[in-house]
Amino acid sequence: MSTNIEAFLTADEEQEIVEAIRQAELHTSGEIRVHIEHTCKGDATNRALEVFHFLKMDNTKLQNAVLIYVAVEDKTFVIYGDKGINNVVEKGFWDSTKNIIQSNFKNGNFKQGLVEGILKSGEQLQQHFQYTDNDKNELTNEISKG
């Protein structure tokens, strides 16, 4: 575990992010996860895709999982949505979410950026993937680290 990742978010901030994921998923069948690692070797989007598969996020029933991938040292992040989402949303669907995260990150507000980005993702997902009574949480809400 890199000390840099530990410095990125405190344990309390991590819990606030996990709670934001829980809140965001209340109104959608979509699944949201956050993965944080020290650095990304190569292209961040390709790495986000690798992590997405490694975390088995491509196994959701409606293919509606979203990964927010952060490479701390590289100061980069990627929002990666599965096929089920990308097939139904308009181009630029994630732009408002990216902008929220980016403006917070630029000011050093990493926890706030992730919380707001997660809640915005939940709103976006809700438009296309309504929560149903028989919906179950298919993926853990815990932050994964690389």
UniProtKB/TrEMBL annotation:
InterPro entries, alphabetized: TPM_dom
Domain (TPM): residue spans on this chain: 7-120
Pfam families in UniProt: TPM_phosphatase
UniProt name for this protein: TLP18.3, Psb32 and MOLO-1 founding protein of phosphatase
